[in-house]
Amino acid sequence: TVQLQYLLTNPNDIALEVVSLSYQLEVEGTRVTGGDLPGGMSIPAKGQTEIAIPVRIEFANVPGLIQRLMNKTDISYKVSGTVGVSTPIGPIPLTYMHGDRVPIPRF
């Protein structure tokens, strides 16, 4: 299990109530996991809220990924999904995406 820390930013003048959150994690262009989390959090107006997404990766379900990572010094990843926010007309889905490269620890 990996815990992804994500910072949700609200540039609006009103607070946003998060009612749902979906995510997908890709490593080196391969989808390794995804899921849904319950909402129940608020992002203040013109503010930020940090969330933790617990992600369980079963490498047996991603054939060949370990071999591709063996000779690399860093890996690319992308986290994407949808945040559902509450509005007077019902929940509205907002998409998000973040990608980067991280070093692979060597033991």
Provide a descriptive summary of the structure in words.
- There is one protein chain.
- With 107 residues, this protein is mainly β.
- Helix content is 5%, strand content 62%.
- It has 1 helix and 6 strands, in the order E-E-E-E-H-E-E.
- The longest helix is centred in the middle third of the chain and has 5 residues, at 65-69.
- It has one helix at 65-69; strands spanning 2-9, 16-27, 30-43, 48-55, 74-85, 92-103.
- A 4-stranded antiparallel β-sheet has the order 3-2-5-6, with no helix packed on it. A two-stranded antiparallel sheet has the order 1-4.
Number of helices: 1
Percent of residues in beta strands: over 45%
- Terminal CA distance: 19 Å
User: Compute the gyration radius: what is it?
Assistant: 16 Å
Give the overall silhouette: elongated
Count the E strands: 6
Estimate the helix proportion, in percent: under 10%
Largest sheet strand order: 3-2-5-6
Oligomeric form: single chain
Q: Strand pairing plus helix content: what structural class?
A: mainly beta
* Main sheet attributes: strand count, strand direction, barrel closure: 4 strands, antiparallel
> Which residues form runs of ≥5 with pLDDT under 50?
none
Overall mean pLDDT stands at: 86
